[in-house]
Amino acid sequence: DIRIFKIIANKQPKEFKDYFNCLDNYGQLVEKFITKIKTGSDQYYLLAVIKILSHIANNSSKKDEMISMVNTYYSKIKSIKGTNKKAVKKYMSLLKEELVEKNHTPSEMIELLNLKYGIAREFDLETLQEVQKLVKPDAETNYKDFTEKKIITLDQTAIGCLEDAISIEKLPNGNYLMGLYVINPYSYIPNNTSLEKTAFDRGQSIYIRGSVIPMFPDELSYNILSLLEGDKKRVLAHMYEFSSAFDLISFESHRAIIKVHKNYSFENFDKSDHEEEQIAEQLYRLMASLKKEYSGIKNYYNRKNQIKMQRDYCDSVLNNDSFSNELINYIKIFANHTISKTYSKTGNPFIYCVNEKVCNDIKTVDDILSLNTTNLANETKTWYSLQNNGHKTLRLDSYAKVTTPVRNFIALKNQQLYEDVIIKGTKLNNYEIYKIEEELKKIVEFMNRKQNMIQEFAEENDYYYKKVKKKIKM
Length: 474
Description:
Blueprint lengths: L1 H10 L1 H8 L2 H16 L4 H16 L4 H13 L9 H15 L6 H12 L7 H9 L10 E2 L6 E4 L8 E7 L5 E8 L10 H9 L3 E3 L2 E3 L4 H7 L7 E11 L5 E12 L2 E4 H5 L6 H17 L2 H11 L16 H22 L7 E6 L8 H4 L10 E6 L23 H15 L6 H44 L1
Parallel strand pairs: 1-8, 2-9
Antiparallel strand pairs: 3-4, 4-7, 5-6, 7-8, 10-11
């Protein structure tokens, strides 16, 4: 795991440097790498090892000898027999490319990164044609009409991928009703289509320096599945009743039709001289209550920012200077918690976002070569699982991605399950549960690898972006 290696290398830089300055030790790692290629290890694992080997060499006083060693191994590839000869050549070529930094143009570098990580920036013709063929949804039956509610969107910009909206109102009994409205993609997109397959293959929208690589084509992300001001849209409405002191009293979800009153950017909503001043005051009181209840959120986002995680991993960047940005993060985590906890009580399969300690048993660098782990008592890792083991950093007993279905395939699938079981009240028989569980197992396995790949892609893109920018300044 490249992440574990980075943590260990940072915690024990001298020990690692001394250990891998020994060419025999470096050679063992290269040999293990070639063995893993031959045995058909997955792409993420192989790319992770390439990054480890290049990191060691590029920070070693014996870099030239290490490059020579890799070239020697590469020259022996022609003697390898079997179906994996092509794979060995491919990944050894990638390793050579990493070891010798070339002066690629920005466009060449983007192309190389896309090829290396299997990132598709453009959509195929079949997917784009499916968007054009989408028909208007059937008449709204079994949908609650919430079009008269004063609903607003809050996002980085007022024209982005607006997949969620909020409202808050004071009830006659003195309590408050807060609504979180999340677009319902499957009410617009049929199952088992090229659009769904493309979303699965991409896994999530990728936010990198300079651009966004969306999970769905632009027409869907920024129009059909975006809660634009004045448009009627189909959503799942999650309604929370709070006491006058903002203690949670009840929670229920509905399929609903809404019409957004106003699209706000964080910056515009944070200004005090707009028409939503009363709403802002109520939301401020709500956030104060959520901060007390969800004390782990602030530390979680501080850690995310420290290690430069992407926006999509934490739904949106937590900007300490922005009230509305911080508010949306608290509301979304609150919703993801309550939704996943409600669903977990059914006992049906669901994809949870689990955060636990990485490991506790790596003692020396020798353990790396034997594929063991290290003493990382305070380090945690987040991944997808069918087991609801809670989120340790957020200090929550249950957590799942549900509120970002246009930007994350796991959220899209979870939302579909939640709608069927909780809102529609579908009773699943044992065979149906088995079929869903088998499908989700495959999704989880793929998405965990995909998430790691995307993180590495984003970090490498960021590295080259800064490098190109530095050259331009010079």
